[in-house]
């Protein structure tokens, strides 16, 4: 959403290097889950090894090196996936750990791709896509802090990955994900609402007037007869014994 990503210098650099770039909407981290998980891990690493913010310290660099040598769920570390072997660090290791293992790397990539496909399949089972919104539709936008639908605007463009460019009443134009957008339903006409609201009242008034008229007698209904309930239990005669 930053204007620096729309600058001509940045777009020209992407074109020269053949990079296909796409931005994600704000306040929706699950759209870029792998990157957000990596950011969370690095933040924890900085908090533990470089609380002062000095990322050039030896403690932080050594911790980052060990993180790159730590195996993931695929059984291989990031260093093995990228370079085909472990990186030499302060932790003692056998020399065979630094040999190239490209076959294992390819197998790990296949396992990772299969795990990603299974994760997507399980997510799609319980999720449904929201209906798309056209350009020019009035919408309400949820505030990321208060969680209230307190902002209103108009859709001016439709982007990729279910993102919409919205122009707010203040004049600002921002990208928002479809999850935080709701279409504004127009209110009903005053004539229709007044007819619907007066009809039941009129009927209730007529019924009340008929009931309060002194000259109009109401039919008297006889109360239903009272039916006595008798027990149907079989009784046995009482037997007395002489002692």
From TrEMBL:
<dbReference type="InterPro" id="IPR012337">
    <property type="entry name" value="RNaseH-like_sf"/>
</dbReference>
<feature type="compositionally biased region" description="Basic residues">
    <location>
        <begin position="230"/>
        <end position="243"/>
    </location>
</feature>
<dbReference type="GO" id="GO:0003676">
    <property type="term" value="F:nucleic acid binding"/>
</dbReference>
<feature type="compositionally biased region" description="Basic and acidic residues">
    <location>
        <begin position="203"/>
        <end position="215"/>
    </location>
</feature>
<feature type="domain" description="Integrase catalytic">
    <location>
        <begin position="1"/>
        <end position="86"/>
    </location>
</feature>
<feature type="region of interest" description="Disordered">
    <location>
        <begin position="190"/>
        <end position="243"/>
    </location>
</feature>
<dbReference type="InterPro" id="IPR001584">
    <property type="entry name" value="Integrase_cat-core"/>
</dbReference>
<feature type="compositionally biased region" description="Low complexity">
    <location>
        <begin position="190"/>
        <end position="202"/>
    </location>
</feature>
<protein>
    <recommendedName>
        <fullName>Integrase catalytic domain-containing protein</fullName>
    </recommendedName>
</protein>
<dbReference type="InterPro" id="IPR036397">
    <property type="entry name" value="RNaseH_sf"/>
</dbReference>
<dbReference type="GO" id="GO:0015074">
    <property type="term" value="P:DNA integration"/>
</dbReference>
């Amino acid at each position: 959403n930053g204007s620096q990503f729309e600058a001509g210098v940045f777009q020209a650099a992407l074109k020269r290097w053949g990079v296909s770039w796409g931005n994600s909407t704000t306040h929706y981290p699950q759209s870029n889950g792998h990157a957000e998980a990596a950011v969370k891990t690095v933040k924890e690493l900085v908090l533990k090894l470089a609380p002062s913010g000095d990322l050039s310290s030896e403690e932080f660099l050594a911790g980052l090196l060990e993180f790159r040598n730590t195996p993931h769920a695929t059984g291989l570390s990031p260093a093995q996936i990228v370079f085909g072997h472990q990186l030499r660090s302060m932790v003692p290791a056998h020399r065979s750990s630094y040999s190239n293992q490209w076959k294992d790397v390819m197998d790990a990539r296949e396992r990772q791709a299969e795990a990603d496909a299974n994760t997507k399949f399980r997510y799609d089972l319980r999720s449904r896509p929201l209906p798309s919104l056209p350009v020019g539709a009035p919408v309400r936008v949820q505030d990321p802090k208060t969680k209230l639908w307190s902002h209103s605007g108009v859709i001016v463009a439709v982007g990729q990955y279910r993102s919409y460019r919205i122009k707010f009443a203040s004049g600002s134009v921002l990208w928002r994900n479809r999850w935080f957008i709701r279409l504004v339903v127009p209110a009903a006409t005053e004539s229709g609402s007044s007819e619907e609201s007066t009809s039941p009242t009129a009927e209730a008034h007529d019924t009340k007037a008929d009931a309060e008229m002194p000259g109009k007698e109401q039919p008297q209904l006889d109360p239903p007869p009272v039916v006595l309930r008798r027990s149907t239990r079989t009784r046995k005669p009482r037997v007395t014994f002489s002692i």
